[in-house]
Amino acid sequence: xxxxxxxxxxxxxxxxxxxxxxxxxxxxxxxxxxxxxxxxxxxxxxxxxxxxxxxxxxxxxxxxxxxxxxxxxxxxxxxxxxxxxxxxxxxxxxxxxxxxxxxxxxxxxxxxxxxxxxxxxxxxxxxxxxxxxxxxxxxxxxxxxxxxxxxxxxxxxxxxxxxxxxxxxxxxxxxxxxxxxxxxxxxxxxxxxxxxxxxxxxxxxxxxxxxxxxxxxxxxxxxxxxxxxxxxxxxxxxxxxxxxxxxxxxxxxxxxxxxxxxxxxxxxxxxxxxxxxxxxxxxxxxxxxxxxxxxxxxxxxxxxxxxxxxxxxxxxxxxxxxxxxxxxxxxxxxxxxxxxxxxxxxxxxxxxxxxxxxxxxxxxxxxxxxxxxxxxxxxxxxxxxxxxxxxxxxxxxxxxxxxxxxxxxxxxxxxxxxxxxxxxxxxxxxxxxxxxxxxxxxxxxxxxxxxxxxxxxxxxxxxxxxxxxxxxxxxxxxxxxxxxxxxxxxxxxxxxxxxxxxxxxxxxxxxxxxxxxxxxxxxxx
Length: 525
Hints:
Blueprint: H1 2-10, H2 41-53, H3 64-72, E1 77-78, H4 87-93, H5 102-125, H6 133-158, H7 170-173, H8 181-198, H9 215-228, H10 232-244, E2 268-272, H11 286-289, E3 302-303, H12 305-313, H13 317-321, E4 324-326, E5 353-355, E6 378-382, H14 383-396, H15 400-413, H16 423-437, H17 444-450, H18 459-463, H19 469-477, H20 481-485, H21 509-514
Antiparallel strand pairs: 1-3, 2-6, 4-5
Helix pairs in contact: 1-5, 2-5, 2-6, 5-6, 6-8, 8-9, 9-10, 9-14, 10-14, 14-15, 14-16, 15-16
């Protein structure tokens, strides 16, 4: 609990940036006195820039790495790195008990630091002596959107969490308890509704403000929040309204979705802005964090052959090509590597595969190539996701024609045939499409945790566990030479999954202890 106190009082006054957009050009270091700050539009916007920087922060370990770790806990990723100490990531990926590990603790603390930054902006900008009332409303709306984003990330991973929506003294939050899941989502929904009211459309921003939260992004996240709660009627309505704005569309080619040239494309609703400027450390860490150790990468979070098989079984060669690179492949889209066998040494990499979506071609890499200066923006919400969420909500509401129409748009791009099924068969087709279209984009865990089968059992409970499909595939069915040979990471991943425990991650043990018992641990940790 003291960690939360420290975060909410001291942790979020440094006005750092993580963007190449002009509204976040340079980091402003230091701490400011809140009693004398927020005296101008410039100061209000600088503090808001700190809220954006809090999406992923300025290093690999606060948010980016835990996000990869969450995907490691699915059938899409191995822990991957078989050359370094593995304990923290192994417990997360293989369903040990990670309640005392750094990644979950870092994630919790830095999400709350981000929330504090948003609370400061919301409260202080409301009374700041600035004359532009439209700007005041927009800044507050942006901060509310970002606060909702952070609480959404927390509730997905931990369940109901302590909710603080103002600038509070330690005495005011002493003994604070976790809000219910429903109560946490209620705060998220209200913040997003407020944001929708006052945020501009993407097309209404100038190029200098590209990357800011938009009305469309707020609508998309509200739809996702509804969907995750099983509020399908509400999700269908807001996502339909979003589609009807005609602000967004799919990139023509799937290969363009994750290219640097298509940062902030027509498909993008919201993404983390990065820069390759070597004067500052404002780049994305994921290309190095997930890259091949034979190519200056760290090899954490490597694709499974089970995911590769899902593409092959679906006849989905186009998305497979631009999602997974295997040892010996020619990397698509990298002219420097053309005609060469790309090396992902099987003894260093559990599956000898890497994530192509986060891969930066050699001629677009900064010099030197490191984790601080890659300008591949991270796509947090894109239009294909919106279409598939809309399809899911439509199917759940019994409107299969609308579901098929949205699904067709996504499949047409990669030349896959139209799905003509209905009911539960269509439902399963939409679920598979989400796995293939959004693979390795940090969506899979939350999908399989929330989906249920015909008997009301969560999908993840059929995938993990001693008799889970993923566990049986790796232990009995798989013939993949790389995964079978490299047992430095055991192929029995998921065998220790417990249905009555592992639908959420544990609250960091330090937070439980320091709260003096007011913050309860998740069951069976």
